[in-house]
Amino acid sequence: METVLNPAGGVRLMSPIELQEGVASLSRGVYFKEASLDMTLSILTESAARMSGVERVSIWALTDDQGELRCLELYELTTAQHSRGGEIGADRYPAYFRALRSEKCIAADDAYQHPSTLEFAADYLPQHKITAMLATPIHIRGELQGVFCLEQVGSRQPWTTSHRLFAHAVANLVTLALVEYEAGEARRLALKANERLKAVFDASRDALLLTDGESGVVLDANRQAESLFGCARRDLVGKRQSQLYPESAGSEAIRNFRQVVDGQRHSDLVSEIQCSDGTLRAVEITTEVADLSDGQRLALEIFRPL
Predict the structure, then answer these.
(1) CA spacing 20 to 30 A to 247: which of 4, 31, 191, 264?
(2) How far apart are CA 130 and CA 43, in angstroms?
(3) What whole-number distance in Å separates Cα of residue 133 and Cα of residue 228?
(4) What pLDDT score does 183 carry?
(5) CA distance 51 to 104
(6) What residues form DSSP beta bridges with 303?
(7) What is the pTM for the complete model shown?
(8) Taking a C-beta distance cutoff of 8 angstroms, is the pair 57, 48 a contact?
(9) SS3 (DSSP) at 266
(10) How far apart are CA 206 and CA 97, in angstroms?
(11) Residue 221 · residue 233 · CB < 8 Å
(12) 148-166 confidence digits (pLDDT tens)
């Protein structure tokens, strides 16, 4: 077993093999997708502190303007206390911020003497009784996004290779948690945007059909379209252009649709549609075309009765 980093806490460091097994058990945890980000970070900091025997374990996020690091989660081993909310400014600690951007980790065996951490000697170190710091940068898509930090309190011991590898492994787990949270937020925002778009689609006073630009198959219909065609949305979805018009008007309407989608003509057309009961209604049709990022082309057909 390795030496005790914080004798007052009575916790001995695990061996390098045990630390490796501990990280592996954390990486298998189901909480990455099932727990909130706050809960995940809380689990990671507490587990890292108990596995390593280091008194203070924290996770910091870089602000968008890169001017500050803000504490997302801090766990103190002796008191078993979680907290968050501290800030570290780049203007006050420039050497520390430069080191985070240029080094794989900052291993300060003596935080009062190390060139990257001595700026903390006037306030942060004595305030928390910190004697040694090990800071591992967190990168997402190659950009510095934060830091995972181990801090010894009271007595201090030199950081070993096993400490560095352990910190790097946990920092990778933090990165995974942040990426999963970011992806979840993107999915949530996309769903919310889709719900807003659907609400606008349904609230339109015009009859709207969303169709596939390649096949002309109806993908969606709003309430006004249901009223105009005299059938439910489920009956409109899946219809082809030829099924929307009487035989006398179908060829011209289909030709107009294809020319608009291909950019060969303007979209306005006066035609007749065939309702579900067989009656015909004169309408003005305006078609708007949009290309999606995946290459799919959509057409929004707007029907206004005459």
Answers:
(1) 264
(2) 22
(3) 70
(4) 74
(5) 22
(6) 207, 285
(7) 0.61
(8) yes
(9) coil
(10) 56
(11) yes
(12) 999 999 888 889 888 888 8
Rounded to whole angstroms, the Cα distance separating 84 from 60 reads: 9
pLDDT in tens, 197-249: 677 777 788 889 888 888 888 888 899 999 999 999 889 988 888 889 888 88
Q: What DSSP element (H or E) covers 280?
A: strand 280-291
Residues listed for the chain: 306
C-alpha distances (whole Å) from 162 to each of 75, 148, 169, 223 are 21, 16, 10, 64
DSSP, collapsed to helix, strand or coil, labels residue 151 as: strand
Residue ranges and CATH numbers for the domains of the chain are: 7-187 (3.30.450.40), 204-305 (3.30.450.20)
Q: For residue 58, what are the contacts with CB-CB under 8 A and spacing of at least 6? A: 45, 71, 73, 74, 75, 148, 149, 151
Q: Using CA atoms, how far apart are residues 254 and 278, in angstroms rounded to an integer? A: 19
Helix pair angle (161-203, 37-52), 10° resolution: 170
pLDDT of residue 29: 60
Segments in the chain forming alpha helices (H): 16-27, 31-34, 37-52, 94-102, 124-128, 161-203, 223-229, 233-236, 247-261
- Between CA 76 and CA 144 the distance in angstroms is 25
Residue owning tokens 């096993």: 162
Q: What per-residue confidence (pLDDT) applies to 92?
A: 94
Tokens of 258: 């294809």
Q: What are the residues whose beta carbons fall under 8 Å from the beta carbon of 260, sequence distance 6 or more?
A: 266, 267, 287, 289, 299
How far, in Å, CA of 35 to CA of 41, rounded?
Answer: 10
Contact (Cβ atoms closer than 8 angstroms) between residue 212 and residue 298: yes
pLDDT tens, position by position, 24-38: 666 666 455 567 888
